[in-house]
Amino acid sequence: MKAKKGLSTFLLALGFTVYLTVNEPQSAYAMHIMEGFLPVGWAVFWWAVFIPFFVLGLRSLMRITKETPELKLMLGLAGAFTFVLSALKIPSVTGSSSHPTGTGLGAVMFGPLPMSVLGSIVLLFQALLLAHGGLTTLGANAFSMAVAGPMIGYTVYRSMIASTGRQKLSIFLAAALADLSTYVVTSIQLALAFPAASGGIAASFLKFAGIFAITQIPLAISEGLITVLIWNWLQAYSPEQLSLLQRSMKGANKG
């Protein structure tokens, strides 16, 4: 048993070392859609779209902490994982960047709604403390990373579990596609705000998405592998909490 835990810890440390070495940010100007980059109308629009999900997420978090307060530590882990991974910025397109998101783990653990709160808090701290993103563009950034990404990731996870029963593969795909879908939505946001002179929104989307894909596809694969390593670590060192979490999620899904 000790040998198994030791191997799990080694693989986790090795995974993070490789991940952080390969994906080390290269410049301080890397960020989400930056402050003031979106026209006012679009900034307001994405705030309006995001807020209902945030409210539903607060209600979901209150239910989780009230019914199973033992899971607060797991919620903190999901938030910390999102903060660490999404803070790794790699410049990609003027006014935005490529980076892992870290929201897939929380979506698998708690569902997509709690991540709308945890992810937006992460983005707020990054905007205030790290100059990554901005306050006016927080609605757009939160919708892409804290709403759309977790929803896609959770849907993929549930579908794969139901069809294959292979949990590790399901977690890998959930994390990877939560990452990629975030950048698809970001590309749509930028294309809507800045349609190309020739080809309009469609041409602009292909331009943004195509450039993002160069860095984002390897990042998504890396994030999927790291998320599986974290899950293995939880199974080895926190089996009781993980079991409680899974029972809680099954009960919530039945309800």
UniProtKB/TrEMBL annotation:
InterPro entries reported for this sequence: CbiM, CbiM/NikMN
Subcellular location: Cell inner membrane; Cell membrane
Entry GO terms, CC: ATP-binding cassette (ABC) transporter complex
GO molecular function, one term: cobalt ion transmembrane transporter activity
Membrane-spanning residues: 40-61, 73-90, 110-131, 138-157, 169-196, 208-234
Keyword Transmembrane among UniProt keywords: yes
Pathway: Cofactor biosynthesis; adenosylcobalamin biosynthesis
GO biological process: cobalamin biosynthetic process
Top-rank taxon, per record: Bacteria
Membrane topology: Multi-pass membrane protein
Coiled coil: none
Gene3D superfamilies for this protein: 1.10.1760.20
Keywords from the UniProt entry: Cell membrane, Cobalamin biosynthesis, Cobalt, Cobalt transport, Ion transport, Membrane, Signal, Transmembrane, Transmembrane helix, Transport
Function per UniProt: Part of the energy-coupling factor (ECF) transporter complex CbiMNOQ involved in cobalt import.
Subunit relationships: Forms an energy-coupling factor (ECF) transporter complex composed of an ATP-binding protein (A component, CbiO), a transmembrane protein (T component, CbiQ) and 2 possible substrate-capture proteins (S components, CbiM and CbiN) of unknown stoichimetry.
Family to which this protein belongs: Belongs to the CbiM family.
Name of the molecule in the record: Cobalt transport protein CbiM
Organism of this sequence: Paenibacillus piri
Source species taxonomy: Bacteria, Bacillati, Bacillota, Bacilli, Bacillales
Gene that this polypeptide is encoded by: cbiM
